[in-house]
Amino acid sequence: MSTYQIAAPGRGRTGLGRLRSLTRGRGLLVVATAVVAVAVLAALLAPLLAPYDPDAVDVTAVSQPGSAAHWLGTDDAGRDILSRLMYGARPSLLAPAVVTLTAGTVGTALAVSAAWIGGWYDRLVSAALDVVFGFPGLVLAVVAAAVFGAGLTVAVVTLSIAYLPYVARVVRSAAQRERQLPYISALRMLGMSGPRICLRHLLPNLLPLVLVQVVTSFGYTLLDIAAFSFIGLGAQPPTAEWGLMVANGSAGILAGSPEQSLYAGLVIVVFVIACNLLGSGVSQRLLGERR
């Protein structure tokens, strides 16, 4: 009597082989994820990883180039640039995170409720979003700073409002299409209430789209926060923040000490590009699977 052996799924493949199969064709996405992860870890572990106190002034080491003592050099006050970049990751990443999460949460709630209720409420929400969308976020932030004073808090609140339409308009259109699908009609015929349908069925189906919008907006929000600090209306000295570091180091460029502005600007550019690549990869992965 002959016997047959059925190979178990995945048997014979090493962990390295599975990793290669997962990352094949996604090199840029892996690199972008690694850049974002390194920045987040630097922000979280700054007290353990930073070689110096970010605010420690050393008048004997002002505007020094990179050396064994200060790998990326020092700024115009003798502070270690590497340490300030690590600590600066905290406000530079936290502020955009609050903006995108707030805009994503409130924008999704407005979009789903407008698509479900319809009528005058939908028209009112759409008109309000159109009005907000007509004003650039930085312009609103500058006006708010002139009224309430400079600071990251004002920038975060204002940009959270300014980014609402970017999420709400896209999600509203998707929610309106989703509402016309047969499963929504079936759920209503079964007697399920509108809020329950939205929370348990409609919203979960929209979450991939919301996630893509939040991830994609994060890089642009970071750029806006950095620009706000660059013009002196965001983080205030001596706070270590990437946009403020670019501004503080601008005078040193002509003096032959561009390290502070150069490294801070480079970190911003690399992180924003990584966020865009990550958002594109998440979009292809999540939204592609739904098609």
UniProtKB/TrEMBL annotation:
Lipid bilayer topology: Multi-pass membrane protein
Source superkingdom: Bacteria
Residue stretches spanning the membrane: 28-50, 93-117, 124-146, 152-171, 206-235, 262-282
Signal peptide: none
SUPFAM superfamilies, sorted: MetI-like
Every ABC transmembrane type-1 domain range: 89-279
Location(s) in or outside the cell: Cell membrane
InterPro entries from the UniProt entry: BP-dependent_transpt_permease, MetI-like, MetI-like_sf, OppC_N
Keywords: Cell membrane, Membrane, Transmembrane, Transmembrane helix, Transport
A Pfam family it matches: BPD_transp_1
Keyword Transmembrane: yes
Keyword match Lipoprotein: no
Family assignment from sequence similarity: Belongs to the binding-protein-dependent transport system permease family.
Name of the protein described by the UniProt record: ABC transporter permease
Source organism: Streptomyces tauricus
